[in-house]
Amino acid sequence: MTRLSVERLGQIRTDWTLDEVRSLLDLPFADLLFHAQRVHREHFDPNEVQVSTLLSIKTGACPEDCAYCPQSVRYDTGIEREALLDVETVLEHARAARESGATRFCMGAAYRNPKKHQIAAVAEMIRGVRALGLETCATLGMLEPEQAEALKAAGLDYYNHNLDTSPEYYDKIITTRTYQDRLDTLQAVRDAGIKVCCGGILGMGESKADRAGLLHSLATLPQHPDSVPINQLVQVAGTPLFGAAPLDPLDFVRTIAVARILMPKAHVRLSAGRSEMSDELQALCFLAGANSIFYGDKLLTTGNPEEDADRQLFARLGIRPEAAVPATDTATPVLHARHECGSPNHVDHRGRG
Question: Is 197 a catalytic residue?
């Protein structure tokens, strides 16, 4: 990299070139982590990590063909279809999350695009969760502008909708919606004034060029996502990607580091796949600029490290949960640990939330 480009690292930019992203991924490992850590320290406390939690409010029977997803109706993965939870059941989970220290509660539903009555039901959940003093997050599939506006009116703070992979590799993973469909939903969410959570999945057979393409797509959105979940594929028997070659762990760390450099103010989240990562690999990811995790023993329908294991790792690394953002429109004060999206119920590994 030129001296000028190195000096620009840490600036908030949406005009990154694909060549710049590729150059970052090609840096010597030590140099890349040095730059990522420097950028990270300019914008965040390096010893704080945001802790996130997620509840699956409607599980299974999704009509889409995402090759990684055990909730697709097209694959036999043993996931039973579950109807949309009732509001009081969701609020019971939200109260439990608040008692465990959560300040943000994310609700995920396996929809392609929710119907009007489903949006109305989720809006009621959002209002109830906010009344508990919690921030709210949702992931419900594709949204029309009026649906995003309805969720915002109910008090939704964050919406998750991932790009998953590069534009070039996308049709190898999903054929039931286009890349532009995803971009349109993100635009509707931004236009409604909802904060964006958007990332992708690694280990789906993509090339390094595809990982660069994903990062470039994220970093050149009109505004950087507020949080960027980076998932490692959790292979589930019955899905087309079961048996895929495992990802090189250092390539995962490189992707975390480049995401941190490209999107300096975003929370870069270690999402699915942590249960298969060693403590040492997770520590490298934190060093590379990751500062958010999913907390809880499930991520939709796949495993996640137990809470005690995370606490022990935090203690060994000298990491503490990030402080909560003060509530501005609820009467109940928020608590001290910050959570966005992880799950006491069923959760899949698409990195929702």
Answer: yes
- pLDDT of 343 > 60? The answer is no
Q: Phi first, then psi: give them for residue 325, nearest 5 degrees.
A: -80, 130
CB 135 within 8 A of CB 158: yes
By C-alpha distance, which of 112, 24, 6 is closest to 62?
112
Over residues 200-230, the pLDDT tens digits come to: 999 999 999 999 999 999 999 999 999 999 9
CA distance 279 to 311: 12
The catalytic residue among 104, 130, 137, 341 is 137
Read off the pTM.
0.84
User: Is 160:197 a contact under the CB 8 Å cutoff?
Assistant: yes
- Burial bucket for residue 108 (CB in 10 Å: 0-12, 13-18, 19+): buried
Q: Which of 98, 182, 197, 352 is catalytic?
A: 197
Residues in the chain: 353
Q: Using CA atoms, how far apart are residues 272 and 88, in angstroms rounded to an integer?
A: 28
Is 66 annotated in the active site? yes
The set of residues, in sequence order, having a beta carbon less than 8 Å from that of 279 and lying 6+ positions away, is 313, 316
Q: Options 3.40.50.2300, 3.10.129.10, 3.20.20.70, 3.30.1130.10; which CATH number does 14-321 get?
A: 3.20.20.70
Say how far residue 217 (Cα) sits from the centre of its chain: 15
- What's the rounded mean pLDDT across residues 274-296? 89
Q: Which residue has the tokens 């949309």?
A: 84
Alpha helix locations (H) across 179-278? 179-191, 208-219, 249-262
Residue 328 has pLDDT above 70, yes or no: no
Active site residue 62: yes
Burial class (CB in 10 A: 0-12, 13-18, 19+), 3: exposed
Beta pairing, strands 298-299 & 302-303: antiparallel
Q: Is 341 a catalytic residue?
A: no
Domain ranges of the chain: 14-321
